[in-house]
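Q: What would this chain look like folded?
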Amino acid sequence: MTKETTDKTFSSEVLNAKTLVLVDFWAPWCGPCRQLSPIIDEIANDFAGKIEVYKCNVDDNPETPSQFQVRGIPSLMIFKDGKLVDSKVGSSPKASLTEWITKNL
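A: My prediction, written as structure tokens:
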């Protein structure tokens, strides 16, 4: 299941997580973000118990994307043990996202 994270909750939810965390930085007006959203939801279900999946609305939460130098959206970032370990900008097919996540597990 995909959850929302905010500037206030990012540190406790993402950086302090005990599992691998995927964060989708997005905005409601972004076409590719809306296109990617159902794929991110599927990935959250496919990897349930292995990773946590969060979405962060960049319009409502400007501090976190700025902290991690998000320049374009959608931006997907994988965090492990409180550190950013990999990132990907733009929309991708589910198969390539699954492969990308798997290599980071």
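The mean pLDDT is 97.
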